[in-house]
From TrEMBL:
Its cofactor is Zn(2+). InterPro entries: Aldolase_TIM, BKACE. This is 3-keto-5-aminohexanoate cleavage protein. Pfam families: BKACE (PF05853). The keyword Oxidoreductase does not apply. Keywords: Metal-binding, Transferase, Zinc. It comes from Haloplanus ruber.
């Protein structure tokens, strides 16, 4: 039986799914990303998941100076766990995406559990025009693109996590990814207890439904017993229903403009903090659970602690 510890609310503040035209509230510069992350932490997020973007155009990039600037500014402004992406954008090669781990030696970073189609091309037709040429090109390019995370890639990057005592958050987009994770645990490439981030609703991964989330958790229990914690991302309008289901099941939830731009139907979220506030409210009012502080989250997930990071 899963212990109903406090709930970890993560906030993914900018990502690589949405583009500047889609919301004027999407943070772009390192300063904006860090400010959004600190405000999200003040609203109750104990983990802030970060990507960086070209400061002039908003295009997703892997610039380590920008990552460092974000990480340092967030660390000065709050105690939240800074979790950089190693997923970057589906267009970026894995060897480029992993570089942030040796650079920042973070407590935690995302780690994607398999190669998938990652279709964003369907978003193009929702907008009459785009602010930057790269936006429709980037989105449409995903029609013929694989988000690459092969077994060989994972064999290369997982020892880098270990070397820097960075806990991988395992991004699981489909049921098969749980079997990949089990294989990697059995080979000693991932240490238990693992922390899984279930991602539902990406075009190329498992669909966003309550039934699918139940199934993912069932399979994880079959494979890992009690040796895992889990959080859930429901893409787009599924963010709050699936987040609420997750916390009602003893799991954790991620919100943020990376995965969802709307506070409610037809109303853009004006900040990441607004999305966090709503998830905190749902956690308390629907699931009857309290939200974990960064210190409690470190304890719950067995992280090395802020003082051991390189920023
Ligand atoms: N954008 C999410 C669906 C990563 O950054 O490594 C998944 C994600 C992956 O955040
Ligand atoms: Zn991400």
């Amino acid at each position: 039986m899963r212990e109903f510890d406090k709930t970890v609310v993560s906030c993914a503040v900018t990502g690589a799914i949405h583009t500047p035209t889609m919301s004027p509230h999407l943070p772009i510069t390192a300063e904006e990303i860090a400010a959004e992350a600190v405000a999200a932490a003040e609203a109750g997020a104990s983990i802030v998941h970060v990507h960086v973007r070209d400061e002039a155009t908003g295009e997703p990039v892997t610039d380590l100076d920008l990552f460092r600037e974000v990480a340092e500014t967030v660390a000065e402004g709050c105690d939240a766990i800074v979790q950089p992406t190693t997923g970057g954008a589906p267009t970026m090669p894995p060897e480029e995406r992993i570089q942030v781990v040796p650079e920042l030696e973070p407590e935690m970073a995302s780690c994607n559990m398999g190669s998938i189609n990652f279709g964003l091309y369907q978003l193009v037709e929702k907008y009459d025009e785009f602010e930057y040429d790269w936006e429709p090109e980037y989105l449409d390019g995903t029609r013929d693109l694989i988000f690459q995370n092969t077994f060989a890639d994972l064999e290369t990057i997982l020892p880098i996590f270990d070397e820097h005592d960075t806990k991988p958050e395992l991004e699981v987009y489909d049921v098969g990814h749980l079997y990949n994770a089990k294989h990697l645990v059995d080979r000693g490439l991932v240490q238990t207890p693992i922390h899984i981030q279930f991602v539902l609703g990406i075009h190329g991964g498992i669909g966003a439904s309550a039934k699918n989330l139940n199934h993912l958790v069932d399979v994880a229990e079959d494979l890992f017993g009690d040796d895992f914690t889990f959080s859930v991302i429901g893409a787009g309008r599924h963010e709050f229903p699936l987040g609420t289901q997750a916390v009602s099941m003893g799991g954790h939830a991620r919100v943020g403009l990376e995965d969802n731009l709307y506070l409610e139907r037809g109303r853009l979220a004006e900040s990441n903090a607004e999305l966090v506030e709503k998830m905190v409210r749902l956690t308390r009012e629907v699931a009857g659970r309290e939200v974990a502080t960064p210190v409690e989250t470190r304890e719950l997930l067995g992280l090395k602690g802020k003082s051991s990071t390189a920023f």
